[in-house]
Specification:
heterotrimer, A mainly alpha (161), B mainly alpha (93), C mainly alpha (138), A: 161 residues, mainly alpha, 2 domains, 57% helix, elongated, B: 93 residues
Chain lengths: 161, 93, 138
């Protein structure tokens, strides 16, 4: 199984995408299936590190939390742009020491942090595990360190390590 | 009635997207630095894609969707290449 | 827009609302790009358009075409997924490039490499011979 079709989920996702972009007919299923298998085998030739999902049940919780936070920070950044809440706004960099070492987990954390308006992932040092974050509305450094560490990192650690 | 509601909201949305594009174009010209210009170019790609999606709703045809997908893919590739160039001074190492 | 005449009222209202929300968020992001003072502040602005701006307009398209009944809905989900996955990659690369350029010019407004060491613990063994002795200054 693993030699013929190394990444079954990836191949299935590619096939579904192919069929949704074209139309459902036996010929398209055959063509899409061939491309999906070829792509999965090409992926295996790259030897990526296989992510180990330890507790995948937590993924919906993470997804819900991120969606909620993106809505919330969309509102926050919109009000900053509109100039509501008249007080002096200060932006700045926050260094955060991370425990997470799994590469897939770090990639997901990077996507979460950057796609949330108001925070941006700037740099990560794999030797020390320190992440440099830029925050648009920086009131208290501690608050952001706690948000990243307890709200996201703890959950990602449970999922991946 | 429903057609009127939809026509007005699509027109207003398109006007807002065009103004957004204008803001980004102004920043693209003003700069001040190369990274600002690349950031605006990337944002303009996304806004162009959204404009085409709204065009699809306006005309009710499915052809626009493919154009939107192609613009999204091209925008990603070109922005990544430009960011790489800013970092290293060359695109392919 | 004769094709929209057979659309149910709730679908038309929902599509309009989602379109206006999405376009409005994108416009706010663009105004932010114009308004913010430094590059690292401006990085935050386009994410308004790429997170819920794109999401809302894609949802509007899904609602519209599904209620018209002409085709399946998965198309716009593809655009949404693609934009949410690729935008962080672009912005991260761009932010790193900007940081690299600012450091190369020794701009005092960006944090130096020394920030990237773990606070509280002993400094990690140096791989370069740069600041082996004494406190790192740059």
């Amino acid at each position: 199984m693993s030699r013929v079709l190394p990444y079954p989920l990836l191949a299935l996702a590619l096939l579904v995408m192919w069929l949704s972009l074209t139309s459902f007919s036996p010929g398209q299923v055959l063509l899409g299936g061939g491309i999906a298998v070829a792509a999965a085998r090409a992926m295996a030739a790259l030897h990526p590190s296989k992510p180990r999902l330890r507790r995948w049940q937590l993924i919906p919780l993470l997804f819900g939390r991120v969606t909620l936070d993106i809505v919330r920070s969309n509102i926050a950044v919109s009000s900053i742009v509109l100039g509501l809440g008249r007080r002096e706004r200060k932006s700045g960099f926050v260094p955060i020491p991370l425990e997470l070492r799994d590469r897939t987990g770090l990639a997901i954390l990077a996507c979460i942090v950057t796609s949330t308006p108001g925070t941006a992932w700037i740099e990560y040092d794999p030797d020390s595990g320190v992440l440099l974050l830029h925050v648009l509305d920086l009131v208290e450094e501690k608050e952001w360190i706690d948000t990243i560490k307890y709200r996201y990192e703890a959950l990602l650690l449970e999922i991946f390590e | 009635m429903t057609a009127a509601i939809l026509l007005w909201s699509v027109s207003i949305a398109q006007a807002m997207l065009v103004i957004a594009m204008g803001c980004n174009a102004y920043r693209l010209i003003r700069g001040p630095r190369a990274q600002d210009r690349v950031l605006c170019l990337d944002a303009m790609y996304v806004i162009a894609m959204l404009l085409i999606l709204t065009m699809g709703i306006r005309t009710g045809s499915a052809i626009y969707f493919e154009a939107a997908l192609i613009i999204a893919v091209l925008g990603f590739a070109s922005s990544v290449a430009l960011a790489k160039f800013l970092m290293r001074g060359e695109v392919i190492e | 827009m004769s094709h929209a005449a057979e659309l149910p009222v709730w679908a038309a209202l929902l599509t309009s609302l989602l379109l206006l929300v999405g376009a409005g968020l994108t416009l706010l992001g663009a105004v932010g790009v114009l308004q913010f003072r430094s590059f690292f502040e401006r990085v935050h602005a386009p994410t308004l358009g790429t997170s819920w701006g794109t999401g809302a307009i894609a949802l509007a398209s899904i609602v519209f075409f599904s209620s018209l009944g002409t085709r399946l809905v998965v198309h716009e989900v593809l655009i949404g997924v693609f934009i949410t996955v690729t935008t962080p990659v672009t912005l991260m690369l761009l932010a790193r490039a900007a940081l690299h350029r600012e450091r190369a010019e020794e701009n005092p407004n960006v944090p130096s490499r020394a920030v990237m060491r773990r606070r509280g613990s002993a400094p990690a063994p140096e791989d370069g011979a740069g600041d082996a002795a004494g406190t790192p200054s740059s």
